[in-house]
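Example for tutorial group B:
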């Protein structure tokens, strides 16, 4: 079985290969589990795609897009979206016979699934390395964790992974409206390669680096009393970023490793050969459940960002209120075009939230410039080093 894809055709139908009837109790269990599997699949798709799209919008917003980690997380959300659409969305259409497989469909779909799955894993590994450098080697952070370096890393990953994934155009064929490997030997070789390059190496790297990062953060927390106030504030902002990225990479590790271990064990022991129906069903339940966990990894990041990132939550609220703010601005321009024009040219006005803008435009008293000054100062405080000058070391929070 392709470890990236799990579909309902691998469950036995109403009869086995010899035409004998399946145990009614076993058939009922199969139907109950498939109902659970369908509900969870739809839930993952419904939560994952809107959350990933909103994550991309938030990460490329003016308040976050200048930081290297934002580019990593935006790319991760884009890769996760492609995986969910091709691995989960198209599979649903195929199961309901809304899409019929062809040679072109199989080759292109498996290429997108494979490349987006690899990209997701290696982008997670890349920003875990970036956090390791920032936490364990802070003196080299400005040189090795710049926006330019991030762009080069992402471009290199995309070129290498897409080139390797082109093997799917040769390996995949269509048989009886199903996408299958060309022959068993091809399936075995690509599955072993997939486990090594797409699962075991990234998860091992993430696990080791996260252990080192956690140990270093705890040690620095104990030594923080001897640091100056400015250094402590910088450490706190770095720690906030580390918490978000550490949570994402740890979740990736937890949701990916169990399925990888089971697939490797099955490949090594060949336990799927010569087993009875009940044992086969139990193994399939385990495999499909672990497949759901694996797919959840591509849908849960928005929730993790919202739980651990204060700045992310603020920008999400601002993005969701953008349509309301636009409506307010149109109404206010019609009521008082002069004040609206003056307001638009005030320093820091563009960084105000929709609620601050509305409060000013509806106020009967002269505008309280303190709000603008606070927002302007906050914007300067959270700019990246390139915006504040070559000698500054200000960190943007998540």
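The residue assignment follows.
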């Amino acid at each position: 079985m392709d470890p990236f894809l799990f579909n309902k055709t691998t469950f036995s139908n109403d009869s086995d290969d010899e035409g004998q009837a399946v145990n009614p109790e076993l058939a009922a269990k199969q139907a109950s589990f498939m109902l659970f599997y369908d509900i969870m699949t739809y839930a993952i798709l419904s939560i994952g795609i809107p959350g990933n799209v909103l994550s991309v919008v938030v990460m490329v917003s003016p308040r976050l897009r200048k930081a290297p980690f934002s580019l990593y997380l935006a790319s991760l959300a884009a890769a996760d979206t492609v995986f969910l659409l091709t691995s989960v969305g198209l599979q649903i259409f195929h199961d309901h016979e809304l899409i019929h497989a062809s040679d072109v469909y199989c080759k292109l779909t498996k290429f997108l699934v494979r490349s987006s799955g690899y990209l997701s894993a290696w982008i997670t590994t890349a920003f875990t390395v970036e956090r390791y450098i920032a936490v364990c080697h802070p003196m080299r952070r400005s040189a090795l964790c710049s926006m330019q370096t991030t762009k080069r890393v992402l471009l290199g990953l995309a070129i290498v992974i897409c080139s390797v994934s082109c093997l799917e155009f040769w390996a995949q064929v269509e048989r009886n409206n199903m996408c299958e490997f060309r022959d068993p030997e091809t399936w075995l070789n690509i599955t072993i390669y997939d486990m090594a390059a797409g699962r075991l190496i990234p998860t091992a790297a993430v696990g080791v680096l996260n252990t080192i990062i956690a140990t270093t953060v705890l040690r620095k927390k104990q030594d923080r009393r001897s640091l100056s106030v400015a250094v402590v504030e910088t450490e706190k902002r770095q720690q906030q970023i580390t918490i978000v990225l550490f949570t994402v990479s740890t979740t990736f590790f937890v949701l990916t490793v169990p399925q990888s271990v089971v697939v490797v064990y099955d490949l090594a022991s060949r336990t799927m050969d010569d087993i009875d129906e009940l044992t086969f069903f139990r193994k399939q339940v385990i495999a499909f459940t672990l497949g759901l966990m694996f797919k959840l990894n591509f849908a849960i990041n928005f929730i993790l960002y919202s739980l651990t990132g204060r700045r992310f939550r603020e920008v999400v609220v601002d993005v969701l209120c953008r349509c309301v703010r636009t409506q307010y601005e149109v109404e206010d321009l019609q009521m008082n075009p002069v004040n609206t024009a003056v307001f638009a040219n005030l320093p820091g006005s563009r960084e105000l939230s929709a609620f601050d803008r509305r409060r000013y435009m509806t106020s009967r008293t002269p505008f309280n410039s303190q709000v603008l000054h606070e927002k302007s100062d906050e914007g300067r405080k959270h700019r990246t080093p390139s915006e504040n000058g070559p000698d500054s070391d200000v960190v943007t929070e998540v």
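The beta strands are 172-175, 178-181. Compare this with the pattern of hydrophobic and polar residues in the output above.
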